[in-house]
Amino acid sequence: NIKVLFPSSGFDIYPFSENIKEISELDAKAIVSNRDVLEVCRDKLLTFNRLPKSSKFVFTTDNPDKIHGFPFFAKPRYGKGSRGIIKIEDELDLKYVLDKIDDVIFQEYLPGIEYTVDVLSDLLGNPLVAIPRIRLQTKAGISTMGKIIRNKKIETICLNTAKNLGIVGPCCIQMKESKDGQLRMIEVNPRLGGGTIFTTLAGVNFPSILLDMVEGDKEIIIPKAKEITVVRYYEEIIVEN
Hints:
The mean pLDDT is about 90. This protein has a six-stranded antiparallel β-sheet. Strands 3-6-4-5 form a four-stranded antiparallel β-sheet, with helices on both faces. It has a two-stranded parallel ribbon with strand order 1-2. The chain has helices at about 15-20, 20-25, 35-40, 45-50, 90-100, 150-165, 195-200, 205-215, and strands spanning about 5, 30, 60, 70-75, 85-90, 105-110, 115-120, 125-140, 140-150, 170-175, 185-190, 230. α3 crosses α4. It is built from eight helices and twelve strands. It is of the alpha+beta class. The protein folds into two domains: about 5-55 and about 110-230, D-amino Acid Aminotransferase, Chain A, domain 1 (2-Layer Sandwich); about 60-110, no CATH class. It is globular.
C-alpha cells in the first residue's frame, strides 16, 4: 500500500527515476527528477557548464592549467559529498593526482563558511522555498551541527538553480565562501539531504508538504523557517540482559 516514494540517497534516485512509469502503474508516485537532470547533477563538470554564471557555481575544469595558483581542489568528477577530495598544494600533489586518479576535476579552493541549502520545488518543477543553514560541524560527511539562517541572496541563487536544472521535489545544494567572501556553489543533490531534519525542526516539513502536493486537496502553505541551531548526537541506551 505504498503510495509515495521519496529518494533520500544517491543510490535510489536512479531506479526511482528510471522506473517512474512502472511505479505509477502500481498506483504510487516517485517524487524524483528525470534521468537527464540526475546526470547533470551527478557530473560536476556538466553542472558547471550547464548553469548560467549567475548561479555562482565554483569554477570547474578537467584541465588544471586553467586553475591559477595553489592551493586548489581535485575531486572525482562523479563523486559524492567530501569523499575523494584532495587539496593540491604544489606541483608534486598535482603530478600524483594526474598519475593515479581517473575522471578527476579541479576546482577553486574555498576556505570560507560552508552552507547547506534545502530547496523544495513543486511537482512541475516550480521552486517554492529555500532554507539555508551554516554547517557548523560535520562527521564522516554528515552534518551534526547546523544553524538555520535567512539569507535572501543565497535563497535566490538556489531557487533559480533548481528552476534552471528542472528539479522536481526536493534538492540539497552545497555552497562555500571563497577567501574573499564570495559565495560559490559546489554541489547540487537532486534529493532530500541527509540534514533535512534541520529544516523540519525549523518548522518547514518537506515530506509533509510533498504529501499534500500529491494528495492535491489542500492549499500548499509554506511556513516561515525559524532561525535555530540544531545539534545532533548519539545516545547510548541500556537494555537489561
